[in-house]
Amino acid sequence: MSSFNKFTNHIISNFGAKSNINVDRVLFSNILKAPISISNIDLESKTYHETQKANDVMLLVSSATFTKCNGYTGGGIDANGTSLIIRNSIFDENKAEVGGAISALFCSKITLDGNRFSSNTAQYTGALNLDSNVEKGDSNVRNSNLTGNTAVKWTGAMRMDRTGGTLQNLIFEKNSAMACGGFFDYSCEPCTRNVIECQFLRNRAMSRGGAYCCFHIKQNVNFLQCTFIDNKYETKTNSIAIDSINIKVTIDKCSFSGSKDNEIVMKFQGSTVTNRDSKFDQK
Q1: First vs last Cα of the chain: how many Å apart?
Q2: DSSP 224
Q3: Number of domains in the chain
Q4: Is 239 within a domain?
Q5: Cα–Cα distance measured from residue 223 to residue 230, given in angstroms and rounded to the nearest whole number
Q6: Is residue 253 part of a domain?
Q7: DSSP, res 194
Q8: What are the residues facing 227 on neighbouring strands?
Q9: Is the separation of the CB atoms in 54 and 95 below 8 Å?
């Protein structure tokens, strides 16, 4: 494994990349700027570099470790206007203003599988700040652990904008923020979010859901066989906050440690929650 320790600048940096970038079995530690910084987009104008399309270039990261790295957006990885695939990698104790571990904006495809995100911190979004440039985007995060991540303001662990897709076999444990302790969902029609076999354990916030915040109008979220244990906002038991109108939430064979009235809170009228064999007050 290659290693980089105590550098003051990006290790891999590319604006307007024209070929795929592969990072395999590399240790990044104590880097003062995001070790990987890739951009194919001008974030000021939201236009792609020259004629480059976002899905022309892929950033593939495998079996890498990022620890105690820093950045303004993305403590470990700052990727804009690319396809992003990260597998079997570790992100520990990284720090940023936005996205303590990763910030990925205007990405045509996002696939994260088999990763660990622990003790990352930010002002906004403690671990993963993810966004697609495609309204029907299908972004998938699977088989990963998000534990002990913290945001001073919004979203303790992960935020996903615009794109739908699947969260599967994830553990959100002891993440915290002022607003939304675990996952902040900003998807909307025509996207659908499927949350499958995920565990939300002891996440904390002062508002907008201890574990999960459904925030955007006309959002569709399906929870299947998920477990919610001891999530809270303020001192109240709460897992799911429905914070807009015309949101459709389905909870299918899920388990909650608290009562239904406390676990799922609807801020406005006009949204619906469909319960299919889910159980509450499970101690």
Answers
A1: 45
A2: E
A3: 1
A4: yes
A5: 17
A6: yes
A7: E
A8: 199, 255
A9: no
